[in-house]
Amino acid sequence: MKTEFLTFDACYVRGKKDLYVAAKKLEYDPSKELLVRITRGGICGSDIHYYQHGGVGDFILKHPMVLGHEVIGETVPNDGSNPVKVAVNPGRQCNNCEYCLEGKSNQCLDMRFFGSAMRNPHVDGGFAQYVAVRADQCIPYNPAIDEDIMAFAEPLAVAIHAVNQAGTVLGKKVLVTGSGPIGALVIAACKAAGAAEIVATDLVERNRQLAIVMGATRALDPIKADLTPLRSGKGYFDVSFEASGAIPAIQGNIDLTRAGGVMVQVGMNPGMVDLPLTRMLAKEIRFVGAFRFINEFTTSVQWLEKGLVDPRPLLTSVFHFRDVVKAIELAGDKSQALKIQLSFEE
Which positions ≥6 away from 281 have C-beta within 8 Å? Predict the structure, then answer.
């Protein structure tokens, strides 16, 4: 089938504080890709970093790029069939490299991930009226599920992958440091996976309150609370999830995690981190990273369909995509917002 073209509007970031809506011309092959009309998208921390700093870590913008990787929509069939509501997996792995063949697609050597400046030319994201993706990137979902809920499919997949990296949390005492959107979803995923106790920490009172709503047994201020009882006896928690990227939290979790326990690092920090290595190895703590997700994206869609996790308490507001600057400014104010979504409905 011949290549087709479509022109529509998209949200481009060009550099620090340089975000705008402009026309995008899409070229795609209907025999290899599905056209999806985007209906809703969630603003992620990486989107905020591209806007505030012109890059994420070492990935600096070299040219305008469409933002966004937390998107849902509906297919645009070219055969007369009915549209299907889908959550769009933002990762297009090669399916041929050694990691893909080992079932570790999140480590793909030729990954093309929505809204990422890792490659040059950059990979455009999903904050656009349309995207063209492979069929395996489209996960159908029950159209009765509210878009407010299903737009959380991607960040919930990140949280479920983090829980899977721990091995199991069933019957375990769990710590989650950092109760922003990802940390809160880790809390919810741990509860759904059968954790016996979940303690959350965050510097922001509002986030601590939401941590309780999302399933935490209790939520503490890591500066003001007396954590001494949780450090005694070589630590209290079987599993700790560090979701803030804050160096003191990473260091502190070594003392809070039991000997032989598991530390899962979810939050990112672009700099170097000093670790009390001797204490860590003496306690035989297993330190593991959690990066994006693998087949957890499909699991996430299923959990949201079944109501195993309700992410709606995390949703602060929904903006029309043409107000993307206002939306991302609010999303960047952590004292006022947790998750901001964009609507692409005209």
Answer: none
* Nearest in space to 295 (alpha carbons), one of 135, 89, 69: 89
313 touches 210 (CB < 8 A)? yes
- Encoding tokens for residue 240? 């700790």
Work out the pLDDT band at 1, boundaries 50, 70, 90: low
Going from the N-terminus, what domains does the chain have, and what CATH number goes with each?
4-152+311-343 (3.90.180.10), 159-289 (3.40.50.720)
Nearest Cα neighbor of 154 from 87, 94, 214, 95 is 87
CA distances from 154 to 10, 20, 149 (A): 20, 24, 11
Please list the residues that pair with 22 across neighbouring strands. Answer: 10
At 321, the amino acid letter reads F
Mean pLDDT within 65-72: 98
DSSP of 188-241: HHHHHTT-SEEEEE-SSHHHHHHHHHTT-SEEE-TTTS--HHHHGGG-SEEEEE
Nearest CA to 138 among 65, 44, 40, 35?
35
Structure tokens at 140: 């159908």
- 122 CB contacts (<8 Å, ≥6 apart)? 61, 62, 63, 65, 116
Cα 62 to Cα 13: distance, rounded to the nearest angstrom: 10
pLDDT of 321-340, one tens digit each?
999 999 999 999 988 899 99
Cα–Cα distance between 23 and 45 in angstroms, integer? 25
> How many residues does this entry show for the chain?
346
Coil, strand or helix at 118: coil
Q: Please say whether the beta carbons of 239 and 218 come within 8 A.
A: no
pLDDT digits (tens, 9 = 90+) for 215-274: 999 999 999 999 999 999 999 999 999 999 888 999 999 999 999 999 999 998 777 788
